[in-house]
Amino acid sequence: MNREKEFDDELETHLSLLIEKFTRQGMTPEDAFHAARRQFGGITQVKQQRRDSTGFTQFGIFANDVGHAIRMLWKAPGFTVMAVAALTLGIGVNIAIFSVINAVILRPLKAPDAERIVRFLNTNSYGSSPIASFPQFNAWSRQTTLFEDVSAHRIDTVNLTGGLYPEQVPLARVSAKFFRLFGAPVALGRTFNPDEDVPAGAKVVVLSYELWARRFGRDPKVLGTSLVLGSEPHTVIGVLGPGFDTEQFDPLPEAWVPFQIDPHTNERGSFCAVSGRLKPGVTLATANAELRSIANEYRRTLLSPNPRATFTVQPVRDAMVSEVRPALLLLAAAVGLVLVIACANVANLMLARATGRKREIAIRAAVGASRGRILRQLLTEGLVLSLVGGALGLAVGMFGIRGLLAVHIPRIGENGAGVNLDGRVMAFTVLISLATGILFGLVPALQASRTDLTDTLKETSSRSGSGLHQTRARALFVMSEMALALVLLVGAALLIRTYTALRAVNPGFETSNVLATQMSLTATRFEKTAAMGQLVRDGVERLRALPGVTAASSACCIPLETVWQLPFFIGGRPQNGSGPPFAGWTFIAPEYFDTFKIPVVRGRAFLESDRAGAPAVVIINQAMAQRFWPQGDPLSDRLIIGRGIRPEYERDGPRQIVGIVGDVRDTGLSSRPRPAMYVPIAQLPDDVNVINLRLLPIAWFVRVRSEHPSTRSSIESELREASGGLPVTRIRSMEEVEGQSTARSRFEMTLMTIFGCSAVLLAAIGIYGLMAFAVEQRTQEIGIRLALGAGPSAVRNMVIRQAMRLALAGVAAGITAAFGLTRLLSSFLFEVRPRDPVVFIASPILLVVIALLAAWVPARRATRVDPVNALRWE
Questions:
Q1: Is residue 511 domain-resident?
Q2: Is the Cβ–Cβ distance between 515 and 711 less than 8 Å?
Q3: Res 652 pLDDT > 50
Q4: Partner of 624 for a Cys bridge, out of 9, 472, 620, 636, CB 3.0 to 4.6 A?
């Protein structure tokens, strides 16, 4: 390869010397070129012979092209740095988003026959939900001609007591076939058998490998020992293999117990998720068609009130990511636009560089290089650039995306731990790098390879002409950059306004200076209402006594995270045929409204006297009052709550409405307040209390004047004392909870803003590069204008006008495209219209101003051209 390079350099130098020699003898440039080429024929033959004698293979030619490309790029560090930076940015953001899409959407489940594993869904006109009742699970598990290994599963929280310290652990309740469905490896012992997965079956537990290692030091003698979960002893029968993750739970379970669902139950108030495997030969379409008829029979048997509800199945991987898929695809489209802008930018740079290399390319053609050979050499330079940009982009993309993945997205783990560099990401990097090199390199290479040898060699060494076709191509690239940048800028602005609107929403309660934590009471003595009521009174009293605490309370749920929905009837009103309405149902302790500063609009809040044996009471919110009592007085009516959903609620009699409170956005800041009911903790029937506590830990809330370093540890200590040593989860501020509720919107906004700013930066560089090149090519013209009396301001304005014509044309095209494309954003927006006038006015103005600033520097440089030096150029 080095011999070939030396010989190429020798030939090019010799041809140039011959042309200069004949020119000095009085020949025209054209005659000098033809004479030199005739005399040079023998040398080209020698060159070919030397190629043949050295066995220069196709691979060797390619290696030579790569080496030459590297040398040429090394000689132009400014061009190389700018091109590689643009490509690193464009390829890096694409790799970042693809790595997330790969982890979330493309990565297969780690399970046998994963493509046949499906999630059962309840589907109606409002959408689909994976939440299923026990009777539905039983109905699905009987469809043995369609499915196999149908399994129910749910994640709970339980206290692990005994040993040196108690702790809360995530507990998975699963049916016996679950482990076979997901291919669970067993490190020790066994998993459940069908006899243990029945009502009143044996209390057994399977440990995760991580819990076994942490709590028992990998002691094999753990089998057969008793493990206390809550207050119930369970016999350890097995340990799962390390790293077992079905991806169906968040957080990962550390213990597994049999679900023990009654196969004959008709109770619709217990819930789970259900997965199964399609039998060989059964398609998704066939299964869904059969499930529709099964749903009809189910509704007739259990008198389901919703005639439009049906059953469907969906590949479990798709069901897991159905909520985030649209956002990821939107971001993928956005980064695709960034890459196109980066390619246009680099293509512009290469067109400008090709102008200065016209003489070099002409000489290469003169020494015998065909147009295809020159085209391949120039494309090789583009591929070298794109591969370097791809390598750097891989590093930037993989590290950068992890810094932004604090938001919860299924399958990626905490802080993006599931986003890994695997074969698909590497293949994508190589493919996108190669495609990018061809995309931005093809047009400049075609333009440069068309160089006319005679015309090129007629040009003097002063400056080479750029050509009208090349100037138009560069202008088209710049206009395209401006248009695409505006589309991204508009999208980013809409999401910024959405996030701002979300942060400005009043959730209906004050989050500042409120701390929250949770305590699992599952399988403890506090499952009895009287005992739990006493625990709440003791705990709240202890918390109120802490320094700086102004209020404390307890409830079943943390606002903005989970809220129960139960049916209700209004006493004395006839029922309609469509079934009872539903409303949020939250059991709370006194001072709950004071702790969160939720206003009592009418009536009263709960009192300490609202206990078991006292008249049953309930408080509703304004949304419920306005909807169901538009003209009447709710305080004169009573509610019957939960009737018909399961037998335990039948024991909860009518409740008198004693108050109306302000609305709370309980399920999210983007959702309008729904009808809500609040009942006192101390008035829950025991059976209802057991159901609730096995589904969710109880929550504690503390309002403080200001948080001190010891506040959280003091809260934890007091609650442990009040409960007799039960652990609590990590204490969070309600501001953190509120921030987590808007994390996904913040993630989308942040990425779109990064993409939009990147696009604007690239577009500005494109405008600057084109104007700088135009000024350089028009130096002689500008010198003449100045010599004839044109003022510097006139020259400056001439350059700026040229730039702004391109910018405005691109902006006009971008506005048209944005008007059509922003409709795709409508589902991501909150309190913002897709064609928001503020965004569509401010974004183009901002982009035009940036383009003006980018053109200003070359325009100022044009005013400093020395007319005398400019007129010396031939």
A1: no
A2: yes
A3: yes
A4: 620
